[in-house]
Amino acid sequence: EKLLLSVFGRIYDVTAGQKFYGPTSRYNMFPGHDVTYALGTGCKSDECLEKTATDLEEKELEEAKRWLSFFQLHDKYAYVGKLENNPMEQMMEAWIEEAVQKQKETGEEVKMPNIF
């Protein structure tokens, strides 16, 4: 069974990260949700999984953007689609392009941000 989650409405297949997102893992509540708010705030509660990026403060939004870069550039987590009617789509495309360009320029591997 595939494990899918989304960040800013972009859906990623995180099945390869079974040890992180599988049924007995630390982040087992993430698949099936848009986890933007949870990643931006470090909150894993059901309430936080129901909130959206529009609920984030500026600092939290920056943290969520780091996570978007992580998932987008991860070599094992494939981008598989996007949620419909996502008002942040254009802004996200610009963020992703910025992250890809930075990686090309610096050659740095994108590391997983520190999380809760």
3D architecture notes:
The model has no long low-confidence stretch (mean pLDDT 89). α4 crosses α5 (89-106). The longest helix has 18 residues, at 89-106. It is globular, with a radius of gyration of 13 Å. The protein is an alpha+beta fold. Helices cover 42% and strands 11% of the residues. Strands 1-2-3 form a three-stranded antiparallel beta sheet, covered by helices on one side.
The largest beta-sheet arranges its strands as 1-2-3
Largest sheet at a glance? 3 strands, antiparallel
Radius of gyration equals 13 Å
Uncertain spans: none
Count of distinct strands = 3
Count of DSSP H/I helices: 5
Helix content: 40-55%
Shape, per Cα inertia axes: globular
SSE order: EEHHHHEH
* Mean pLDDT over the residues: 89
